[in-house]
């Protein structure tokens, strides 16, 4: 009888212990949340658009390289992205790939932001729940995620970013009117003048997609350059007649995406913080994933491919900006037409040609179209957190065209920089779509 009681008690104890271990469910929403929080930390830290694109890209590649080890439908980016070697492999059957991918994402992300603690607090709030459910699986998955992150970190450390931190500031030449000069209200130095020296991801070199030169500088009425300058001036005057009801004003504000806008009130200066252009397109990626019901794997795939397009887009664009070194409309309008004129949007602190928004929007739209389809309509609520209403688009290309045009309405770009920039970005996007072989079966991926 004693043996029978002992046996029953042991069985209950074993069953109870087994019940303490629960399956850890990791969904695409966990990965969306990771990207969202990385965006919020970068907004807090005020990252410039090029630097922010680098943060998104390495973090998402780390997650993707984990998933590529476990899902036969996905191909590693090793050998496809510059200097990227194969990630460490594992034979452990305890690993949950999704957990490992999220671990790798956060590990790289926290190494690239300033407010590391903000990311860690969010990360740990999720990880502690997972660990409580199944500590053995979590620890095995965490160890592998950290291993892949270490691999990506070594690759990342050789992209020349650290070297560009110690390079000299951009020299401003006021002797030539065609050259860029710092603009009000803060007259900041040119941001990231050496960004073209950053190692590209998929494109072969920063100048691979070198655009045609901008129109020849001329203040002669009737010249192409002067006509484009006057177009900027006249659109601003048109908007000023009824700013509250102007669709052009609404478009300009929606796509502002200036991470640091200085506001002067009397003798006081303060700043508002927003997402970068890349952050906006990562938000659109989330919207597309959610609307299409993309699972964890496809979501990681989408974020990674879009982020590569954004990063290479900024490298390509910045290479042209500091080569052509073209003056902004505000400088010339204030000097020759109206010294009290102000643009709708605050002029960003770097040369004009080509338009960064146009380049990265064109690149992102091509990649998103390849993943989700040509007629993918969506409601863009990315800017709601920044006090702006939702805008609806018939397609990603439709959105990219509006994003590009917004720079003209905002008074910060000439038409040539917008149109050529959009072409430049689309060329980069098409190159990435055709070069990167990330799936073994595109048809199967699209159906998921």
Can you put this structure into words, describing what you see?
The chain has a two-stranded antiparallel sheet with strand order 1-2. Strands 3-4 form a two-stranded antiparallel sheet. It has 448 residues and is mainly alpha-helical. It has helices at 2-20, 28-45, 49-68, 97-112, 116-133, 135-156, 161-164, 224-240, 247-254, 277-292, 296-324, 329-336, 356-372, 396-409, 415-435, 442-447; strands at 261-265, 268-272, 378-380, 391-393. Helix 2 (28-45) packs parallel to helix 4, helix 2 (28-45) runs parallel beside helix 11 and helix 10 (277-292) packs parallel to helix 13 (356-372).
Low-confidence stretches: 4-19, 443-448
Gyration radius from CA atoms, angstroms: 25 Å
If you average the pLDDT, what whole number results?
93
Strand-residue proportion: under 5%
**Structural class category:** mainly alpha
The count of strands amounts to: 4
Which key features would you list for this structure?
448 residues; mainly alpha; two-stranded antiparallel sheet; two-stranded antiparallel ribbon; disordered C terminus
Write the layout of secondary structure elements.
Layout: H1 2-20, H2 28-45, H3 49-68, H4 97-112, H5 116-133, H6 135-156, H7 161-164, H8 224-240, H9 247-254, E1 261-265, E2 268-272, H10 277-292, H11 296-324, H12 329-336, H13 356-372, E3 378-380, E4 391-393, H14 396-409, H15 415-435, H16 442-447
Antiparallel strand pairs: 1-2, 3-4
